[in-house]
Amino acid sequence: MLGVIGVGAIGAAIVAGLSEGCDAPAILLSPRNAKTVAELDATYPNVRVADSNQALVDQSDVVLLCVRPVDARRVMSDLTFRDQSLISVLAGVPIKALRELAPPVRDIVRAIPLPAVSARRGITPLYPATEPARSLFNRLGRVIEVADETVFDRYSAATATLAAHFLYMHQISNWLAAHGIAHTQAQHYVAAMFAELASSLKGRDPDFQELMHEHATPGGINELFCQVMGEEGAWKTVDAGLDRVWQALMDRQNGG
Ligand SMILES: NC(=O)C1=CN([C@@H]2O[C@H](COP(=O)(O)OP(=O)(O)OC[C@H]3O[C@@H](n4cnc5c(N)ncnc54)[C@H](OP(=O)(O)O)[C@@H]3O)[C@@H](O)[C@H]2O)C=CC1
């Protein structure tokens, strides 16, 4: 039995992805977030809702922890574990801290799922990449087996750039809207442009420099835009943002 504590955005996405297709694993959900939990329970025959978090822990061989990092200590300190498996998706909470939160559990794996797991198209770094986490996340797409926890946290830092991608698109559509194109039309246009770009990445070995050149006619407007972004410091800002995220993750690990 897989028990999921914290059925918010990523917890629900994982449950949905695992529950699609044949041989779906039996899943028990924590009762909080009643609306989402009831929807998952009604949609998937392999899903049930536990009476409490402790009942979930008692009945589960594998516990998947999907609460916000700031809530972890409060949630876990109420619970008594036995020697079962624990998978944590909590960004920036290291194995050492998880051991302290869930004694006597020894088998602890960290995972970095992305929302695409709901459609079983995820790519999930695992540390350490042991069973049963490997099988669970392989069912949700692909797994990256990471051998070192610091490297694992680098992957975690990179996921912090996702929301900014939408802000970038927002900025472009706002510029169009400020210059006479209806806001909705501008958003549809930018969404279609980037959806096409994203789908062109599938099924090929990505080389981003090469792709940039494919899209930038020499002397053309894409080349000009890249040049101005560089001159204005945009690419250095990406490095600065990632460095700050990395520092925040490290501070979280050190209890800061
Ligand atoms: N969202 C994402 O794409 C990704 C998230 N993560 C990690 O996943 C974790 C969850 O993120 P996300 O899903 O976005 O956050 P959400 O806030 O959407 O989900 C967290 C859920 O935990 C619930 N919760 C809080 N306290 C308890 C409790 N005592 N018992 C059971 N459930 C509880 C919350 O309920 P309530 O709202 O009522 O407090 C909420 O539904 C984070 O640690 C994050 O780092 C990792 C990879 C990707």
UniProtKB/TrEMBL annotation:
Coiled coil: none annotated. GO terms for molecular function: pyrroline-5-carboxylate reductase activity. Pfam families: F420_oxidored. One of its GO terms (biological process) is L-proline biosynthetic process. Keywords: NADP, Oxidoreductase. Residues 2-92 form the Pyrroline-5-carboxylate reductase catalytic N-terminal domain. SUPFAM superfamilies: 6-phosphogluconate dehydrogenase C-terminal domain-like, NAD(P)-binding Rossmann-fold domains. NADPH binds at N53. The keyword Oxidoreductase applies. Belongs to the pyrroline-5-carboxylate reductase family. This is Pyrroline-5-carboxylate reductase. It comes from Dyella monticola.
